[in-house]
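In response to the reviewer comment on reproducibility (Comment 2.3), we provide here a single inverse folding case reported in full, input and output, so that an independent group could reproduce the run without further information from us. The structure tokens appear first.
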């Protein structure tokens, strides 16, 4: 039997990666250090974010959102993907 499904309404925590050192510290602490921030040698700014997951390392660019799933995974989403999928609760 073919049935239709719609996404469940869910609440997730997320942080938007803005490249600032303060945000890097927040992300690393929030993720229990599974998220590592790299400094771009040329600009001396945090431009890339590396997330260590079960599937392997994932990258996020400045402007991407990092979401924590109910299973405790941290996943990057582009701002467009995020805004199409989630809206703020308050």
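Designed residues, in position order:
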């Amino acid at each position: 039997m073919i049935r239709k499904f719609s996404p469940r309404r869910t609440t997730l925590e997320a942080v938007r990666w803005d490249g600032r050192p303060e945000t890097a510290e927040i992300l690393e602490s929030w993720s229990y250090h599974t998220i590592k921030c790299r400094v771009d040698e040329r600009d001396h700014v945090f431009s890339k974010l590396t997330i260590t997951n079960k599937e392997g390392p994932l990258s996020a660019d400045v402007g991407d959102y990092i979401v924590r799933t109910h299973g405790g995974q941290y996943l990057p989403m582009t701002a467009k993907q995020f805004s199409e999928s989630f809206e703020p609760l308050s």
